[in-house]
Each structure stands twice: as structure tokens, then as C-alpha cells.
Amino acid sequence: MAAIAHPLNIVFYGVSHKALATAVLAFSSFVSIMLGLFSVTSAIMQGVSQNKRAVRYFAVGTIVKLALQWPCVHYMGVFGPLVATMIGFVVANVLIVSWLNQAFGVDYQGIAKKTNGILGFSLIMCLLANMIVRLVSSGLGHIMTVDSRVGSLIIVILAVGIAGYVYVYFVLKTRLADTVLGERTARLRRLLRIK
User: Fold this and answer.
1) Dihedral (Cα; 129, 135, 138, 141), 10-degree rounding
2) Residues 48 and 59: beta-carbon distance below 8 Å
């Protein structure tokens, strides 16, 4: 989402304060990674009947967030709440993963290979989407106003469609998606004609 933050922000919120709003949206997309990780790790905790422990770790993360909220807002302005939230969720995630490792032994090496693949393909997708946003913006700028909702929507659709397809192609081609989706990937490969 960081790669398409500028046109996406215009689609939903218009052009007022677009530079700041784009920066906040881009940074929020990185903060959401910690929120997503917490969703996964807390679900694992629930699966191993450790609900109370997960809530305690969430409470610790929330206390850290609240303690850092004012200093972060004071020094970082509008980005302060996002930074405080991210730090709070990092603390909660570290506590949960540490406990899971202590209780069950986490296979970091096995996870790292798949995670690195996902991160690598995500980076390629991000760079490609950013390049498409820039190219389509400059090309479309000759025909219409790019900083309009319609122009930005066209840019978002093209960037997400093309970069998203490239990501799907890579995870299907390398069989990385098989570990998450299982047998359904064979049908997707046939549908997209990927060998």
C-alpha cells in the first residue's frame, strides 16, 4: 500500500494536505505489518489455550504504547501515535514469540526461508507498483488531471492489477503458495497457465 499511497489517498480523501496524508498512509501500511503479525501470533496463542497470557501480553504492549504516546506525538507530530502503536505491538509480538519459542521451540530456520521468499516477492511487487504509479502518472498527465479521483483510481487499478499479478505469479511459480494454500494452488496454476 505504501507504493500506491499517493493515488490511493486521493481516491478516498481528495487532494487536501495530500503530501502529509500520503506520508501518513504510507507509514501506516508499515505499521499494519505489526498489527497483522499480532493477529497471527495471538491466534496461535488461542490455539494452544493461552488466551489469558495473550491478553496479558497485549496489555503490556498497550501500556508501552500509552507510555510512549505523548513523547512520540511531541517529537514526531502526526506520526507519533503510529510509532507508539508500532512499538507497543512489537513488544507484544516479541513477548508472544518468545513464549512460543520457550514452550514449543520455533523452527526459525524453516520459517525464515518462506518468510524471506514472501518478503522478496513483496519487495519486487512494491517496487513494480511504485514504478507503475510513476509511469502511468506521467503518461496520464498528458491526457487528464492525475491528481483527481478518477485519474488516481485508474492509476491504483493498473498498479495493483499488474504488480499483484506479478506477485501471484512468483509465489505460484516457486511453489511458495503451496505451503499456505495447499492443493488449491494447482487449480490456480492451471487457471493462470503457470507451470
Assistant:
1) -70
2) no
pLDDT band for 113, please (50, 70, 90 cuts).
confident
CA distances for 175 relative to 133, 194, 195, angstroms: 28, 11, 10
Task: Quote the cell numbers at residue 97.
Answer: 514469540
Find cell 507498483 and name the residue: 129
Q: Which residues have CB under 8 Å from 5's CB, separation 6+?
A: 22, 23, 25, 26, 29
Question: What is the mean predicted confidence (pLDDT) over 85-95?
Answer: 96
| Among the listed residues 66, 94, 91, the one whose alpha carbon sits nearest the alpha carbon of residue 80 | 66
Q: CA-to-CA distance for 68 and 73, rounded, in angstroms? A: 8
Amino acid code (one letter) for 55:
V
The half-sphere exposure of 39 on its side-chain side, counting CA atoms within 13 A, is 5
Among candidates 165, 185, 166, which has minimal Cα distance to 177?
185
